[in-house]
Design brief:
Largest sheet: 9 strands, mixed
Shape: globular
Strand content: 25-35%
Order of helices and strands: EHEHEHEHEHEHEHEEEEEEEHHE
Structural class: alpha/beta
CATH topology of the largest domain: Dihydrodipicolinate Reductase, domain 2
Helix content: 25-40%
CATH class of the largest domain: Alpha Beta
Distance between the termini: 41 Å
Radius of gyration: 21 Å
Bound molecules: nicotinamide-adenine-dinucleotide
CATH architecture of the largest domain: 2-Layer Sandwich
Number of helices: 9
């Protein structure tokens, strides 16, 4: 049995509890340090999770020097992701980072280049693609059970009141949440984004400073069209956090409510005005399907560090999802169709 991989977690805010809960179930990981600009936040997490052997601090460089970890969990706010990741790479650490990869494309490209130069893994938590139903839906699409994919739509309508950094964030829906949905679309289609037109606005009654609603239309590299509609200040009739999806292929359609409800039907005969259709059996989850949200991603990352393999959400791939976000923002700002570049 190897010694556990040593981990320092930076950023002990809201979502760090999810990381620490997951890590507590993994004997291959040892949390050796907790860092936050607010020392009290690091100390509180150490107490809450019984991490008596972990050091706490407010200085990442000093913590890395003192604890010599293998991995840094970057759970800081988006504006700090680049600096924390570069600091960790400079100390020879692998980095698993919260979404979004970075708060600009320039910062994202610098992250990808720095990971390559350092010869270390940097991957992003995209927990919403590590769910059982999206894996089953992906199998249905990949097996061409709907024919050739032509159209993908997703609706995201929720009204959460977070407080904190999101209240003042520019492009809050696109940058902080739509990254999940865009990444899910890319995963489902298995194609790259080409161009986007986006309308972004902050509706009357919004409790956010900027950009709580958006509608975006993407051209994808396989010729399909992905349309996104979303709001973070929609009261009533909530969708799931995974969005509500319709997938249309040349011979069938699938509906997924983003939770348990997943149905599909395809043409089975010529019919009359409408073709005859039959309900499809959506493929079952396979043993090698990657699921488990944060815990699934953290376990995969640790296994990749051990084996020298590449995680699914490696930054060199994940930057394409972030590019969808920034192209959508550029389109909304310029009111023009924008090529998606990374
Ligand atoms: N994957 C998901 O489902 C999910 C859910 C929520 C949040 N997130 C992401 O997780 C990240 C953190 O979100 P949160 O809700 O926990 O935010 P938060 O504001 O509750 O916590 C962030 C913490 O990071 C600390 N911090 C900021 N800069 C730092 C630095 N340079 N070094 C050390 N600590 C620093 C802050 O003091 C704060 O305690 C964001 O990128 C967010 O988008 C992801």
């Amino acid at each position: 049995m190897n010694n556990p991989l040593r981990v320092v977690l930076a950023g002990c805010g809201g979502i760090s509890a999810e990381w620490l809960r997951a890590a507590a179930q993994m004997p291959d990981l040892a949390i050796v340090g907790l860092v936050d600009l607010r020392l009290a936040a690091a100390e509180a997490r150490a107490v809450e999770f019984g991490l008596t052997a972990a050091q706490t601090g407010d200085d990442l460089v000093a913590m890395l020097a003192a604890t010599q970890p293998d991995i840094v969990f970057n759970v800081t706010i988006p504006a700090a992701h680049l600096a924390v990741t570069l600091t960790a790479l400079a100390q020879g650490c692998h980095v698993l980072c919260e979404k979004p990869l970075a708060d600009s494309m320039d910062a994202a490209r610098r992250t990808v280049a720095a990971a390559e130069d350092a010869g270390r893994l940097v991957a992003i938590i995209q927990n919403r693609r590590y769910q059982p139903q999206i894996r089953r839906l992906r199998r249905l699409i990949a097996a061409q059970q709907l024919g050739a994919l032509t159209t993908l739509t997703s609706d995201f309508y929720l009204g959460p009141r977070f407080g904190g950094f999101r209240d003042e964030m520019q492009h809050v829906l696109l940058l902080d949440m739509a990254i999940h949905t865009f990444d899910m679309a890319r995963f489902l289609i298995g194609a790259d984004p080409v161009a986007v037109f986006c309308k972004e606005w902050n509706p009357a009654g919004s409790w956010y400073a900027h950009g709580a609603s958006a509608i975006a239309l993407f051209e994808m590299s396989d010729g399909s069209v992905y349309s996104y509609r979303g709001s973070w200040c929609a009261e009533g009739a909530p969708t799931s956090w995974e969005s509500s999806w319709r997938i249309v292929g040349s011979s069938g359609s699938a509906l997924w409510d983003g939770a348990e409800q997943l149905t599909a039907a395809a043409v089975s005969g010529p019919g009359g005005f409408f073709a005859d259709t039959t309900d499809l059996i959506v493929p079952a989850l396979a043993d090698d399907d990657r699921i488990g949200g944060h815990a699934g991603l953290i376990a995969e990352f640790a296994a990749c560090v051990r084996a020298g393999t590449t995680p699914e959400t490696h930054v060199a791939d994940n930057i394409k999802s972030l590019a969808m976000v920034f192209a959508a923002i550029e389109s909304a700002t310029t009111r023009r169709m924008v090529d998606v570049m990374w």
